[in-house]
Amino acid sequence: MSAPERPVPPEPADDPFGGSSAARGGPAADPLDRLGALGSSWKWVLGSSLATLVFGILMLVWPDKTLHLVAVLIGLYLLVAGVFRFVAAFAGSHEAGERAAGLLAAVVYVVAGVLCLRGPQLTITVLALVIGMVWLASGMLGAYAAVANRALPHRGLAFALALLGIVAGIVVLCLPIESAVALTRLLGLWLILLGLAEAAAAFALRSALRH
Predict the structure, then answer these.
(1) Given its phi and psi angles, is residue 26 left (phi above 0), alpha (psi -120 to 50 degrees) or beta?
(2) Which of 17, 63, 72, 205, CA to CA, is 20 to 30 A from 55?
(3) For bias kind Low complexity, which ranges apply (predicted)?
(4) Long-range pairs for 97-104: beta carbons < 8 A, 24 or more residues apart
């Protein structure tokens, strides 16, 4: 008498994105959770700092500092920064108010970037006003998020970075800027400073996650 055949367990269904769902944590994987994991990564923060440094260096070394070029560089920087801040808004276990502040900062960056790209006829004063208001608003929102979220592993550094953005916004708004060359030099120096501060925050986050 032969032994009864054992039922063969069904193989996990293939995912439309490739691979089985079990291999990637099951069907409960949430796109918001994936955004949160990406935004919580120190590599994502480091990527944001590198992007800021690249635009800062471009503004300093580009030989043809015309008003149209300044508007395009500022617009591209604001769009890229908005994308990074949008993803970062979903990082960690943010409360609704903190996440709303992060998303609002991302929207401010994107809208300002679109305005700069669609309005090459903007004057130096308007461009300085746009970038100054963006840095000031995002810095205030970042400071609020750092104060409200006590679970941040690099809370003090995040607050200092927000204060640096506030100071940058005030400086750009208050200084009389009369030429594209002066504006690009000022913005280039501030972007490099902000990029270095973001890089320090990224490595501080890496250290905190390892411990």
Answers:
(1) left
(2) 205
(3) 18-27
(4) 97/148, 98/144, 98/145, 98/148, 98/149, 101/141, 101/142, 101/144, 101/145, 102/141, 102/145, 104/141
Number of neighbouring beta carbons within 10 Å of residue 101: 22
28 within a domain of the structure (yes/no):
no
Amino acid letter at 61?
Answer: V
User: What CA–CA distance (Å, rounded) separates 15 from 121?
Assistant: 49
Residue 92 belongs to what domain range?
Answer: 33-210
Q: What are phi and psi of 147, to 5 degrees?
A: -75, -40
Q: What average pLDDT is seen over the chain?
A: 79
- Cα distance between residue 8 and residue 26, in whole Å: 20
In a domain, 18, yes or no: no
Interval 121-138: pLDDT, tens: 678 888 888 899 999 998
Nearest CA among 81, 76, 74 for reference residue 47 = 81
Residue 2 lies in a domain: no
Would residue 192 count as lying in a domain? yes
Indicate the number of domains in the chain: 1
Per-residue pLDDT tens digits for 15-29: 433 343 443 444 445
Distance of CA 188 to the CA centre of its chain: 18
Do residues 136 and 169 lie in contact, with contact meaning Cβ atoms separated by under 8 Å? yes
Tokens found for residue 105? 């900062």
